Amino acid sequence: MIRRREELGRARAALAAAGCDYALLSSLANVTYASQWEVPVPLGAGAELAWGGPLLLVAARDEAAWLIVPNGSESAARAEAAVDGIIGFETFDSFTATDARQSYLD
């Protein structure tokens, strides 16, 4: 499936015009616009306690963009996002013991 990347191209052009090399987009609106993946709106206690927001790393001068998403959203992002790579990260899971130091090092 070929995905449109017009919005990502516009974002990249605006970043280059502003003199940026890279940008890390974090708002739901900006990540949704540039990646073409509809970022889920965080709701409820789970969002407050265990959810990490998606980020989009955009290279202004190269054709590269990486979507950084919580592991629970990784499969949906892979199916829809018009980016070069998807990096998933683990979110809080109260049912599984966590080694904070090792998780940070990984």
Element order, helices and strands? HEHHEEHEH
Total domain units? 1
Beta percentage is 15-25%
Please write the CATH class name: Alpha Beta
The fourth-level CATH homologous superfamily is Creatinase/prolidase N-terminal domain
- Give me the CATH fold name: Creatine Amidinohydrolase, Chain A, domain 1
Characterize the structure shown.
The structure is a single chain. With 106 residues, this protein is of the alpha+beta class. It has one domain: Creatinase/prolidase N-terminal domain (Creatine Amidinohydrolase, Chain A, domain 1), CATH 3.40.350. It has five helices and four strands, in the order H-E-H-H-E-E-H-E-H. Strands 1-2-3-4 form a four-stranded mixed sheet, covered by helices on one side. The longest helix is centred in the N-terminal third of the chain and has 12 residues, at 6-17. It is elongated. The N and C termini lie far apart (32 Å).
Topology:
Elements: H1 6-17, E1 22-25, H2 28-35, H3 44-50, E2 55-59, E3 65-70, H4 74-80, E4 85-89, H5 100-105
Parallel strand pairs: 3-4
Antiparallel strand pairs: 1-2, 2-3
Give a short overview.
By secondary structure, the protein is an alpha+beta fold. Helix content is 38%, strand content 19%.
What distinguishing features does this structure have?
four-stranded mixed sheet; 106 residues; elongated; alpha+beta; 5 helices
